[in-house]
Amino acid sequence: MGIKLRLTVMNFLEFFVWGAWLISLGGYMFNVLHFTGTQIGAVYGTMGIASIFTPALFGIVADRWINAERVLGICHIIGAGSLLWASTLHDFDAFYLAMLLNSAFFMPTIALNNTVSYIILEKRAFNIVKEFPPIRVWGTVGFVFAMWGVDFSRSGLTPGQLYISAGAGILLGIYAFTLPPCAPVPNTTKRSFAASLGLDAFVLFKNRKMFIFFVYSMLLGFALQISNAFADGFINDFAKIPQYAESFGVRHSVLLISISQISETLFILTIPFFLRRFGIKQVIIMSIFAWVFRFGLFGFGNPGTGLPLLVLSMIVYGMAFDFFNISGSLFVEREADIKIRASAQGLFMLMTNGFGAWIGTYISGRVVDYYTASGIRDWHNIWITFAAYALVLGITFPFVFRYKHDRTATTASLQH
Question: For the chain, give me the number of helices (H) and strands (E)?
Fold first, then answer.
């Protein structure tokens, strides 16, 4: 099997594991477990809490002591076990604990997946910026396949989604051990105490450009988890309204939301062009304003006459997610020293899916509960509030992020 195909399989399974529950779990918690908005935000916030600690921790392990592909495999196997435990639970406290354990071991795998891909491609003299996006796009395909599997098997409102994810996690955990070795980079020089702990990646904060980039990574991390936590519950709430109860969007909410991930597959492939043509600053600005439209269109859409607005919101999501998450990862890879690349990717995860997601899911859950009265949620004002937040980020970012795009250098890099 060719190495790019092997990495494609890894990326497919990586995001299949996540896609099997990330979007549909909110609806399950709303409608079956009857958790509140704050409780659902807290469960999704476990990804943020875990991302504050474990991506950086496992990045250090991969940089210093254990092959990255082995760390990836171990994390997936343990994460699968925690999902099987969660599938048996109905009490909020126990369910929260199980998902916190899952997050502690799953969230590092996103950065590790990137690191393993980068190392293997680099060892074989492939251009990472050019070759990685077409491989990574299959991760999104895996995410979509998982969502469709959950939707068509009618597992979206059952623990079945957790079984599907756990099975894929065990398979990937075993598969990871068959990948080419991604050993830590030898370092014969004496390490400082901070370097031994992997804290040397924080040297990136000394660069003003990187400091601003990481701050906005945290602020955009808020947006990344909002629709994951509440999109399915939002659409399923229309089932309470007779005119929408039997609509396609309500009956197949996960399938409808999967248009977002299909859109991702298209936008991922455009990343090399946009980075070459516009540079990271303009690409991130596009991402931020895509989030404005994502939330705003949700605010005015419905599964009936407003279905085109929901579909358009799903399409816009591809740009919102990819132009920040994937481009940002490539930007960090280019800016970080080779000896701290796994730690640097962990730091990126720390800011986006760590502090940003943790704080963001907590606040967004509060927003949902604020606009909830007698069990009825005012989704219009909820989504408009989120859109206004993204708009503030979009207005301020161009003025504080100082970056001059060198199109010639980027073009030359892509051609090698």
Answer: 16, 2
